[in-house]
Structure formats: structure tokens, C-alpha cells
Amino acid sequence: MAKALRKPQEEETRSYTERIRELIEQDHVQGARKLLAEALERGEQEKDFPILQSVLGPAKFLRFVDEREPDRTPEFQWLKTHSQDYRGQWVALAEDRLLAHSAEIQEVHAAVKAMTLNRRPLMLYIE
Amino acid sequence: MLTLEGVAFAQGRSTFSDHSKEAPELSAKIFVRLLVGDLDSAVIAQLDTGAAWSVLDPKVANLLGLTKAEGFSTLLETRFGRKAGKLVKVPIRFLADEGASFETQGTFFICSDWPDGRTFLGYSGLLDSIRFAVDAQANHFYFGPGV
Fold first, then answer.
1. What is d(CA B117, CA A102) in angstroms, rounded to the nearest whole number?
2. Interface predicted TM-score (ipTM) of this complex, two decimals
3. d(CA A65, CA B103)
4. Which residue in B41, B64, B110, B130 has the most chain A C-beta atoms within 10 A of its own C-beta, making it the best mutation to test that interface?
5. Residues B92 and B106: beta-carbon distance below 8 Å
6. CA–CA distance, A65 with B19 (Å, rounded to integer)
7. pTM of the predicted model as reported, rounded to 2 decimal places
8. Which candidate, A109, A122, A126, places its Cα nearest to that of A71?
């Protein structure tokens, strides 16, 4: 009696890292996590495993901080009134004051860093 | 702050904006305020539970030296097309109006070919590891570390 024809299984020649990358590119994050876990369980070692363990792993809780964000109504009110004039720029605001503005975020950041402020600025890009 | 069956669910609450003054999108979105890395200024990020990954504004990433940080290079399909970049762990602080702010280290996609001013908080390696709730009537975003 003839044996049933079976397509021989293709041998996987790609590295685990390549296969995990493919899964990540397909947004199949659970699959990527499972494959990495399988590789580690088998004792496989590839250069990118430590970084893959880090980025595929859960967010790591660091600490609670006793800090309260101020009411940002004045900043949003400023944006409503003035954002038209600052299109294509980064702005830093504190209450209804424009602290700095530039197309370069570094310039805004440096200007704000040089100031003594009693309120944490809000920095955003105006499209 | 917020309890679920008598057990603490979220330790912080912030008021979110449901329209960006900057993004020309018509539908309501949830924008929350964060600190990223050791940046002194608060920035705005859009909550996106439908996105596989969080994405960090490339200018903010560059400012913080994160474009040179160790990461895993990959291509991702995004709302702005297929993009090359890398996945990097980034410390962020959810800023609370009430209760406690908290810091966590989440995974962000960093890509130089990404529009300025667009930071997204996506699912894998960030939202899947924390607890959060939205009160859309009051524009309140509750958050806390996962259990």
C-alpha cells in the first residue's frame, strides 16, 4: 500500500533573531515573545537576545513621585489664541507666557533650562 | 485614588485633552502629559491602544540622546507608512493632577522619518503593563503600575 504523500517540512535556517524580527514587523508581538522564550529555554545564545528581552518585556515600574501637574488651562488658552503665529515651531509655555520658540527643539530646551521657573513648562510642536 | 473591588487600581489621575490644538484630526483623541527621560518640560502624547508600539517624537528622542541608545532595529507598519527605526526602552513619568505621578520604563519605537510633535503611547511594552482607566465624561485619565 502506498504511503500518503507528505510534504517534507522545510528546515528552518534563519536565526531566532531574524524570525523574531519578522514577527515584530508583522505586529505579532505575542509570537515574538513566545519565540524568544523558546530560544532562551533551549539555551540558544544570539547577540540581540538581551535587547530583545528588554524591548519585548513589560514596562518596568520605577517609582511613584510626589509631584502634581498644574492646571494647564492657561497654556491651552494661549495655544488657542496664538498657535497660528508659531506654525512649524516648538514652543515652551508656562501659564499664559511664551517662554521660548524656535524651529529647533534644542534652542527651546536650552532657553528654558537657563530660566528659573516655579512651574514646569509645557513644550510642544505646533504643526 | 481609584479602587476596584476595594483594591487600589490607579494611584494617579490627570485631566486629558480630547483634541490636540495642533494635529489636524477631526475625531476626538486622548492626549496626556508626560515627562520623557530627564527632560524638564512636560510633553503631550496621544493614547493609542490600537497601536502595537509606542512612538517617540524623533526630535525629543534626539534631544535626549535616545537615537544613539541601544535598541532593536526593525521595520514597522505605522499610520504614516512603513518605517525603519529601532525599539528602545525609555523612562517616562505619567504626570498626575491628583494622587501620585509615576515613573515607568516602556518600549518606544524611534524613527528619524517621523513627523515632529507626534508621540504615541501604544500597547506592547507600555500600556499592556500598567493599569489605566478613562472617564470620558469628565476627561479624566487614571493610571498606576500594573500588578
1. 13
2. 0.90
3. 7
4. B41
5. yes
6. 27
7. 0.92
8. A122
